[in-house]
Design a protein that fits this description.
The chain is built from 17 helices and 33 strands. By secondary structure, the chain is an alpha/beta fold. The longest helix has 18 residues. It is globular, with a radius of gyration of 27 Å. It binds ligand UGB.
């Protein structure tokens, strides 16, 4: 194969290296030069100098070309189009006015809530769970991968284990016992540690085959409006993350979405890396999707104005209407330009009129696979260059195309239905995103802290809510501040998914009883039941039962339980404790563990 570009001084080096390239590389170079990327090959050294760097550069181009549907040419052409629109100042919401979306309100445990949970529970073996875990969590400042952080430190359960436990509980409850597919999107940054964590923990009891790891790749940065790919130095591109919307492309290009849909998976629930409560909402959210015929169901919370979560709105105008997430940086300008000159402010309820996007999504697989096929999984990319001046001809630093997973409905037609299901915040959305210092500042200025301590706090609060819903008397403890972040001292309640996945199931295993404000209760096991259990003072009670062990717990327990020990900001402790500022010490909590099937009674 011959070069199709004309020889120039600039490309002399490239020509003299030509015979060292494979046919595929030659073809790619020709195509890139034809598409305005001559600068990538400008001033190349003669053969024998920097050959390894040239080889690695061409391999990286080939890899990126293969990863992106439409290849590098497709990426460059998408970039040119989006950059032209950005330069022209195109407003993506031109002519559209935000209105309230179609909503299902599940903020309290009503009969409707229980009805939806019941419907959803029948879909446990028709649901796949998709975890997007390619982000580095720079705001949290944690050195490992976020899914390896403990969501609670009484037993130090990591997010990944907690998610796996929920999958195991789902499949244990389905008639078919079919393994729940678990798709994890990783990146170059998170992939190796994610696999290491799975392997070291024997996949947390899951079968290896039910776990699908999809790796997102970085995309090339772009240095100008013509889509010139940016070089870090000769023979090296600048690469940047493409965003969580990559999950759609990967589910398409890997064939996993189509395969699972063909195997009878009807819904995917998409969850974020450190949102512990996601599975509290799963049964009711799937139920709401099924009952209301939603192709796309965005789980939401009541949003605080200015909060860094998108606002969900029905956008109406230009003869169309569609429900979308308006990202937090776009919401204020849209509101100012349309319905409220004051922008992103509270209404008479004290909150934003638009529900906040938890980025937990329930998507119906048959519409999903259809859209993936039509779009190659490239979902509503956008570009956000920072220009040097108002002529918008140069960028302050190279930009790149990005994509967000919640933007899928941008591709929906009239036949696809989008709904929003609103849950109580504690029950549905308590991400672990901010380091202690930032979290304290956010909390001080009236926003949610969204930190390790608040995530753990809400983990226990959800347990308390389940106990209360089952009729147990729960005395809520006082709220203290640890390094400026709020934390309720108790009771600390963990009802593992093995014990209860729905409110109804919890209620069927708990009768009466009470728990005091500083007590701790941890229950793990499908056949454990609590009969008038009373925990007073700081009492701690832990009951764990293997499958087949039927355990009845009764009576009044009293011991010194677990003590919360505050750690100073400079304490010499592992990072997962440092990011929360406390740990627990066992001062005499009673633990009952049953590892053999049988019938047992635990009595105080
Ligand atoms: N993620 C990836 O897997 N790959 C990537 O390239 C990037 C991220 P962030 P963000 O729920 O609080 C989103 O960075 O993007 C994963 C919504 O857009 O924590 O600022 C990453 O590992 C916003 O509408 O969030 O904001 C993590 O699991 C709002 O709802 C997830 O993607 C906000 O989340 C989110 O990444 C929120």
């Amino acid at each position: 194969m011959k070069p199709t570009f004309s020889e120039s001084m600039e490309l002399v080096g490239l020509s003299t290296n030509w015979n060292n390239f494979s046919d595929e590389q030659k073809e790619l170079i020709n195509t890139l030069v034809e598409n305005g990327q001559t600068h990538l090959f400008s001033g190349w050294d003669e053969p024998g100098t920097n050959d390894e760097a040239k080889k690695e550069f061409l391999e990286s181009l080939e890899k990126i070309n293969g990863n992106y549907p439409g290849g590098l040419v497709g990426y460059i052409s998408n970039a040119r189009k989006l950059l032209a629109e950005s330069k022209a100042g195109a407003n993506p919401f031109e002519g559209l006015t935000p209105e309230q979306p179609e909503k299902v309100d599940l903020t309290s445990f009503t009969d409707e809530f229980k009805k939806y949970e019941k419907i959803g529970a029948d879909y446990f073996d028709k649901t796949g769970v998709v975890l997007v875990a390619g982000g580095l969590g720079e705001r949290l400042g944690y050195n490992g991968i976020k899914i390896d952080i403990a969501v609670e430190v009484l037993e130090e359960t990591t997010y990944l284990k907690h998610y796996a436990d929920n999958l195991l509980a789902m499949q244990a409850r389905s008639e078919s016992k079919r393994p729940v597919p678990f798709i994890i999107m990783v990146s170059q940054d998170t992939g190796p540690k994610t696999i290491q964590s799975l392997e070291e923990n024997n996949y947390f009891g899951l079968q290896k085959e039910q776990v699908h790891i999809l790796q997102q790749e970085l995309v090339p940065a772009i240095s100008d409006n013509d889509g010139a790919l940016a070089l870090k130095e000769k023979y090296e591109l600048i690469l940047k993350p493409h965003g969580h919307g990559d999950i759609h492309m990967l589910l398409h290009t890997s064939g996993v979405a189509a395969k699972l849909a063909a195997e009878g998976i009807e819904y995917f629930m998409f969850i974020q890396d450190t949102n512990g409560p996601s599975f509290n909402t799963l049964p009711a959210a799937i139920g709401a999707s099924v009952a209301n015929g939603y192709d796309f169901n965005s789980l939401a919370i009541v949003r605080r104005p200015g909060e860094a979560v998108g606002g969900l709105a029905k956008l109406v105008g230009n003869g169309k209407e569609f429900t979308l997430n308006v990202e937090y940086n776009q919401l204020d300008p849209l509101l100012r330009a349309t319905i409220n000159p004051e922008g992103d402010v509270a209404d008479e309820t004290g909150f934003s009129p638009f529900p906040g996007n938890c980025n937990t999504l329930v998507i119906k697989t048959d519409s999903y696979v259809r859209i993936l096929e039509a779009t190659q999984g490239i979902i509503a990319e956008f570009v956000n260059p920072k220009y040097t001046d108002e002529t918008k001809t140069a960028f302050k630093k190279p930009t790149r195309l990005e994509t967000m997973m919640q933007d899928l409905p941008k591709l929906f037609g009239e036949s696809e239905k989008v709904g929003v299901t609103i849950f109580d915040r504690m029950w549905s959305f308590s991400p672990n995103k901010n380091n202690v210092t930032d979290a304290a500042a956010k909390y001080a200025s009236g926003g949610p802290a969204d930190a390790s301590a608040t995530a753990e706090n809400d983990f226990y609060a959800a347990g308390r809510a389940r106990l209360e819903a089952a009729g147990m008397k729960v005395v809520e403890g006082e709220e203290i501040k640890i390094l400026g972040v709020p934390f309720t001292v108790g009771p600390k309640v963990i009802l593992r998914p093995s014990f209860a996945m729905t409110l109804e199931e919890g209620a069927s295993k708990i009768s009466g009883g009470s728990i005091s404000d500083q007590a701790t209760l941890i229950i793990d096991g499908a056949d454990v039941s609590l009969e008038n259990v009373e925990l007073s003072g700081k009492t701690g009670l832990v009951v764990k039962a293997c499958s087949g062990a039927k355990v009845t717990v009764k009576g009044k327990f009293e011991n010194d339980g677990f003590e919360l020990v505050e750690l100073g900001a400079d304490a010499d402790v592992p990072e997962y404790l440092k990011i929360r500022g406390y740990r627990f010490e066992n001062r005499g909590a009673q633990t009952f563990e049953f590892t053999e099937p049988g019938e047992y009674v635990v009595e105080a």
